[in-house]
Amino acid sequence: LVLSQLLKHTVMVAIDYCLARWTSDAISGKTELELKNCSHCEDFNHSPYSKVFSILCCLGIVLCLVTSIAVEWTGLKVTKKLHSSLLNKIILAPMRFFETTPLGSILNRFSADCNTIDQHIPATLECLSRSTLLCVSALAVISYVTPMFLIALVPLAIMCYFIQKYFRVASRDLQQLDDSTQLPLLSHFSETVEGLTTIRAFRYEAKFRQKLLEYTDSNNIASLFLTAANRWLEEYIGACVVLIAAVTSITSCLYSKLSSGLVGLGLTYALMVSNYLNWMVRNLADMEIQLGAVKRINGLLKTEAENYEGLL
């Protein structure tokens, strides 16, 4: 999984770099022709660049398919192994285990937790690895284009570490608050629909409508704070990265004669760092919540089996 992700993002960076180099060379060739004022000179040859660009794009498409297959195969393999181990443990568990453990808890391990491991964790893992590698590759490209960015990268990385450390805790709590306020809203709505005849008979429409609005407001408040926290992380860190990258790129372009294509490449990646970093932290927080399903299943896997040594 990690190898396929590394290869895919390496090819993606190579595609962007090839496009930036193609643009810079084309502009330079056109400028030279205008300075020479030569009408019979040959135009810039785009054929080598287009061939390399096409090959890299095809390779990137194949690697995207390989990455998707690797993610699904990894999740399926882990789920089958955990489900098989859990089933064997529960079947061989002693009777005192079923007397002390609620049946709903056992069913949730086989249903909700296995569904989380089967469907949600692989997708979150893929998004987390993709956003992390995109963020690292973006910072690497910016550092390659403008080496002066490395000077500001160390304090920026320290600042990002402490910000995400506090943000992950707040994001996880806000996500749980959003989920906990959504359940009463859905339950009240379904109960209202089922008992609509009785509510109309006793003329309690206004009371139930007001209760539904209160549950909706509670859920909207949690969602608003969660969205505001995510936007704050994206805008604050992203603005710092874009500012530093823009200043260093413009300075390098003025004094080091940096090509316009590479400057555009660095600024493009700088504008995307905020989005990548936001998704990386959010996926990391989601992964911490979803791995609770694995923790609960591992708790049942420690159940001691019944002693059948005396039976034939």
TrEMBL record:
GO terms for molecular function: ABC-type transporter activity; ATP binding. InterPro entries: ABC1_TM_dom (IPR011527), ABC1_TM_sf (IPR036640), ABC_transporter_C-like (IPR050173). The keyword Transmembrane applies. Residues 1-288 form the ABC transmembrane type-1 domain. One of its GO terms (cellular component) is membrane. Gene3D superfamilies: ABC transporter type 1, transmembrane domain. Keywords: ATP-binding, Membrane, Nucleotide-binding, Transmembrane, Transmembrane helix, Transport. It holds the Pfam family ABC_membrane. The keyword Phosphoprotein does not apply. SUPFAM superfamilies: ABC transporter transmembrane region. The chain crosses the membrane at residues 52-71, 138-164, 236-255, 262-281. This is ATP-binding cassette sub-family C member 8.
